[in-house]
Inverse folding.
């Protein structure tokens, strides 16, 4: 059997460890997209950690280290969104993604605290190590989700007691409530967890009986495109997909994989570690029309991303940028090159890509993202730029040592 473990309202549960006064009351962790990373007097610490990895585990984190007024109130206006709400808050209609202003209108006594992502990441890392001591095969799926394989480790008859004991140990050791789903397929187990919340256990013995009346949109992996396709065929529940296997298979490999996952016959293994495919940083900002200011912010994002890549000792060959306008339009561009990595190179490419993909130069921009991928092991470089690139790469390594000790903003690049 495979199991899926999902921490309940993880961020606010983590805050309750430090702040017991938040326990048992409607509370939430908020977040702000327009970001202190661009503030020259920023008090918010950013860092890069690679102790945990998974499909949806980010690399760049920050700790707010602030209070409600300093973090969420700007020029008399409440900014930010709810990123995690306690179950007590959810009873009052508080949902992830709504603005903090909307949440406070729904329930004025809601307690909202700033995020501390470095702290959450550390807790997640400690929990992963604990799970690895309890179960041989553990896969981290996100900062608050894990898969594990107990086949050959725990018998089916012992499984309920084992899961109850594991759940109790996690609560005792970490003070974190967790829900657990179990099934022969990891994706059925993940679906089962959503029916175990909060702080419950759901073991699926018969997949067909379990999924019969579950709406198709609840299955992990059915996005808007597949949802639209299935609804066009009149399919509303997972159980109804049994009769259209041939349609799924006509969608080739993605459709076949999705059908097998729905019916628990995918046989996908638990993958303890997987190589990092990409790393990026993005920020949602208040509308900015000045292209000079946008390029300044791209340079700042490049600084933090370069430091992260240097810490992880990676050498990307693929660079990408994405932007979103206040009109709703989006644009993106990418560039591939085999050159030794440096902050100067990333900054130069990112700004060039921005100028290339800025298709609406009179519109304001509300989101910027840059990323790197295709981390090359083969060292095949451009001989015409190699000498200069290696000098800049050595400089990046030197600045990394300073930034590790004093922070990312301790040393800045001038014009290049």
């Amino acid at each position: 059997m495979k199991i899926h473990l999902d921490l309940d309202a993880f961020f606010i549960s983590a805050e309750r460890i430090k702040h017991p006064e938040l326990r048992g009351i409607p509370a939430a962790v908020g977040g702000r997209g327009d970001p202190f990373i661009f503030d020259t007097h920023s008090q918010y610490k950013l860092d890069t950690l690679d102790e945990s990895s998974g499909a949806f585990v980010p690399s760049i984190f920050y700790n707010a280290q602030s209070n409600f007024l300093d973090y969420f109130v700007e020029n008399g206006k409440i900014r930010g969104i709810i990123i995690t709400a306690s179950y007590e808050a959810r009873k009052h209609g508080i949902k992830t993604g709504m603005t903090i202003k909307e949440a406070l209108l729904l329930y004025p006594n809601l307690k909202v605290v700033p995020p501390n992502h470095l702290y959450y990441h550390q807790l997640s890392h400690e929990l992963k190590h604990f799970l690895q001591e309890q179960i041989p095969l553990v896969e981290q799926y996100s900062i608050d989700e894990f898969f594990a394989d107990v086949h050959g480790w725990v018998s089916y008859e012992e499984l309920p007691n084992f899961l109850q004991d594991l759940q109790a140990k996690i609560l005792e050791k970490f003070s974190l409530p967790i829900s657990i789903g179990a099934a022969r397929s990891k994706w059925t187990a993940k679906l089962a967890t959503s029916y175990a919340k909060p702080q419950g256990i759901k073991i699926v013995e018969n997949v067909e009986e379990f999924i019969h009346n579950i709406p198709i949109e609840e299955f992990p992996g059915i996005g808007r495109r597949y949802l639209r396709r299935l609804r066009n065929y009149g399919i509303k529940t997972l159980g109804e997909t049994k009769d259209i296997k041939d349609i799924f298979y006509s969608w080739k490999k993605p459709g076949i994989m999705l059908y097998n996952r729905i019916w628990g016959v995918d046989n996908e293994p638990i993958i303890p570690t997987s190589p990092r495919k990409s790393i990026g940083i993005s920020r949602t900002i208040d509308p900015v029309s000045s292209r000079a200011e946008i390029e300044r912010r791209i340079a700042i994002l490049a600084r933090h991303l370069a430091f992260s890549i240097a810490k992880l000792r990676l050498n990307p060959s693929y660079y990408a940028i994405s932007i979103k306008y206040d009109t709703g339009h989006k644009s993106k561009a990418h560039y591939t090159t085999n050159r030794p990595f440096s902050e100067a190179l990333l900054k130069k490419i990112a700004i060039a890509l921005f100028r290339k993909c800025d298709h609406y130069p009179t519109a304001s921009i509300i989101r910027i993202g840059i990323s790197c991928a295709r981390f090359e092991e083969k060292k095949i470089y451009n001989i015409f730029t190699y000498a200069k690139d290696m000098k800049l790469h050595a400089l990046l390594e030197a600045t990394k040592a300073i930034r590790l000790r004093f922070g990312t903003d301790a040393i800045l690049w001038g014009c290049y």
Summary: Residues 55-59 have pLDDT under 50 and may be disordered.
